[in-house]
Amino acid sequence: xxxxxxxxxxxxxxxxxxxxxxxxxxxxxxxxxxxxxxxxxxxxxxxxxxxxxxxxxxxxxxxxxxxxxxxxxxxxxxxxxxxxxxxxxxxxxxxxxxxxxxxxxxxxxxxxxxxxxxxxxxxxxxxxxxxxxxxxxxxxxxxxxxxxxxxxxxxxxxxxxxxxxxxxxxxxxxxxxxxxxxxxxxx
Length: 187
Fold this sequence. Notes:
Number of strands: 0
Low-confidence stretches: none
Radius of gyration: 21 Å
């Protein structure tokens, strides 16, 4: 009877822990989205097509980079990092933490940052399309379709290439991020 109560208590604790994670990730998503949208909006105000395209590429590349990190963390093996940690290699402990928290790291990188970048790049694309429509007049639907198709292609193609890199080079990707975290005293 005691064992069943212990298992029941552990399930309740895991449920509460997961609920706290969901609430935390929701609040982080709202905050990060607001900050990135404000920054993007401020940078786009009065910006020309070239500046808007640079901002768009920044968000597309940021989304791809975080997608690579999220996939790499789920694909990486923790064993080499244990060996590195025993030799006190800088970033090894952070790499272990990343891999042990792969579900949360992937959720943050792929879902939170990736989705926010997709949304912000979509609104940036709308600014570009609006500016281009003023120049092209009646052909605006062609311009809108072309810009949307190109942005989608670059984003999806970039993520496809990134996933291959993340899987094949997961140790290098995770270690790079871990060393960056160590240098910034994160984790």
